[in-house]
Amino acid sequence: MRVAAGVLALGLLAGCGSKDDDKAEEKESAKPSPSATTEAPASYYDVPFGVTLTEPGTQLALGAEGVIAFERRQKEIGVLSVKVERIERTSFQESFAGWNVDDVTAARTPYFVRLTVTNLGDTDLGGLKLDNVIWANDGTTLEAPNQYTKAQLPACAGDPLPASFLKAATAQICQVYFIAPARTLETISFIPPAGLDPVTWAGEISKVEKPVKKKPKKKPSQEAT
Predict the structure, then answer these.
(1) Beta strands 206-207; 76-89: pairing state
(2) Which of 62, 72, 79, 89 has the CB geometry, 3.0–4.6 Å to 120, for a possible disulfide?
C-alpha cells in the first residue's frame, strides 16, 4: 500500500505544473538514456578488445563455450574459452585398478571431466594447471580437481598446458573429481571474483569410454614352394 500511495502522490504533484513544464518534461523523457545506449556491461577483469566474457550466473550445456577471466598471478590476467565436452562417472575398480587408495577416498565416486580450452588473451598461459579455476559442485560443496599426467592415468590425462600457450592456442585436458558419498556431480563451475555468481556447465553424465583395443595385424601366410 505504501508504494501505491507514493505513486498517487507523484501523480498529483505532476498535475500542478504548467503546460510549458509538461512539454519540457515530455521532450526530456523522449531523449535516450546515455547509460542505456552507450555503456557496455563492465567486465570483472580487463580483457582484450573484442573479447566478451560470459555473464556471471550463466548456465551452459555440455559442449557450449564459456569465456572466463582469472588472475593467474598478481596483475596477470588469463582469458580462456572453455568447453566442458563430457562428464563421465566411473569407479576405482574400473579406472584406478592397482592404485593404493585410502578408505576415505575409496568411499567417494570419481568423475572424469573432459575440457577443451583456448587462450583468448594476451598472456602466455604456458604450464598452467586449472586446479584453481574449474570446480565441481555436488550441491553443497565445491570440489577441487585432481590432475594426473598421461603416464599416471592414461584414461584421463590432465597434464599442464604446454610450456608455450599463446593466444589462439587450444588444448584438451581431463580433470578428475572425487565426489562425496551419497552425492552426485551436479555442475562444473567457474567462480568469478568479488562474489559474483558462477558460470556453470551441466548435462547428461556419460559412462567412461573404454579405449578400443586394436587387433593385431595378421602376418601374411607363406606358401610352401
Answers:
(1) parallel
(2) 79
CATH number (domain holding residue 87): 2.60.40.1240
CB 146 within 8 A of CB 130: no
Residue 60 carries which side chain, given as an amino acid letter? L
CA distances to 96, 103, 152, 207, 209 from 213, in Å: 18, 32, 19, 18, 12
Q: How many domains does the chain have?
A: 1
User: Is residue 135 classed as helix, strand or coil in its secondary structure?
Assistant: strand
Query: How far is residue 141's CA from residue 193's CA, in Å, rounded to a whole number?
Result: 18
The C-alpha cell at 148 is 594426473
20 pLDDT more than 80? no
What's the Cα-to-Cα distance from 175 to each of 4, 133, 199, rounded to whole Å? 55, 11, 18
- Of 127, 133, 188, the C-alpha closest to 159 is 127
Is residue 71 in some structural domain?
Answer: yes
Question: In whole angstroms, what is the distance from residue 193 CA to residue 45 CA?
Answer: 9
pLDDT higher at 43 or 183: 183
Look at residue 8 and tell me if it is in a domain: no
Cα separation, 44 vs 195, in Å, equals: 11
- Parent domain of 170: 59-202
Whether 65 is in a domain gets the answer yes
Structural domain contains residue 15: no
Among the listed residues 41, 37, 17, 143, the one whose alpha carbon sits nearest the alpha carbon of residue 87: 143
